[in-house]
Design a protein that fits this description.
- Strands 1-3-4-5-6-10-8-7 form an eight-stranded mixed β-sheet. Strands 2-9 form a two-stranded antiparallel sheet.
- About 35% of the residues lie in helices and about 25% in strands.
- About 35% of the residues are buried.
- The chain is globular, with a radius of gyration of 17 Å.
- It contains ten helices and ten strands.
- It has a single domain, classed as Gcn5-related N-acetyltransferase (GNAT) (Aminopeptidase), CATH 3.40.630.
- It has about 240 residues and is of the alpha+beta class.
- β4 and β5 form a beta hairpin.
Length: about 240
């Protein structure tokens, strides 16, 4: 890994941290508004940051929060990943995914008594691709219809996150006029849909992604649901604990 990762509570961000994160967002997205960026950040508990070990420059970040909703009378928790961006020159580095995995594992251990999910609202195919890479079971999934239970979980979480923009029929958070969206040069999948069924499925489920529409996705968060590839990212250069 060329990048080093850290998990920081939002309230503990150092001076200038907000500016560096906003600048990175502004380079990757169109229509980024500082006021909205700050509001979204304030609603999160943690920020995963990755810095270039050679220059110490911020190379990426992802905001995180734990949500709690009620589904069929039972409490459900979810780790919610919000604004996420990595400088294109560092695509492929596992540092951010490694730190996210460590956070997920800590929550799995802390909330073993309650159903726990990862909730992802995906504006682009690159974030969606983390689902088949990291999980054995996730939704929406090209291989299987979304079960009724997971549909209800998605609906409950999306209504909490975006009550006025959530389209329950498509399970998409619709972009409002002027909503930020990934710059065309970064959002373009190129020839990937021809060879990658997961990219094809994302585009078919979220045809308005280039305008900022967000596909709502969930994956059960448990050690048993992580793939072997995910465990290698979470525990690099170490013996991988048995999933269970």
């Amino acid at each position: 890994m060329r990048l080093r990762s850290s998990l920081i509570e939002v309230n503990d961000l150092v001076a200038g941290g907000h500016d560096a994160m906003f600048d990175l967002m502004d380079r990757a997205y169109v229509n980024v508004q500082r006021e909205q960026f700050e509001a979204d950040l304030a609603a999160k508990k943690w920020v995963i940051q990755v810095h270039d070990q050679l220059t110490d420059c911020l190379a990426g970040f992802s905001t995180q929060a734990v949500l709690q909703v009620e589904v069929d009378g039972q409490p459900v928790r979810a780790l919610f990943s919000g604004d996420t961006v990595v400088d294109p020159q560092h695509w492929g580095d596992i540092a951010l995914a490694h730190e996210w995995g460590r956070l997920a594992m800590s929550l799995i251990e802390r909330h073993a008594e309650q159903p726990l999910y990862w909730f992802l609202t995906s504006k682009g195919f690159r974030t969606y691709k983390y689902l088949p890479l990291f999980f054995r079971e996730w939704y929406p999934n090209v291989n299987a219809p979304t079960p009724e239970r997971e549909c209800a979980v998605i609906d409950a979480l999306a209504r909490q996150v975006a009550p006025h923009c959530y389209d329950e029929t498509s399970q998409i958070i619709r972009a409002t006029p002027g909503k930020e969206h990934v710059r065309a040069t970064l959002a373009d999948p190129g020839n990937r849909p021809r060879a990658d069924r997961h990219v094809r499925h994302f585009i078919s489920r979220n045809p308005g992604y280039q305008l900022g529409d967000e596909l709502c996705c969930v994956a059960p968060l448990s050690k048993a649901n992580f793939t072997a590839a995910a465990l290698r990212v979470i525990y690099p250069a170490a013996s991988v604990p048995l999933a269970g």
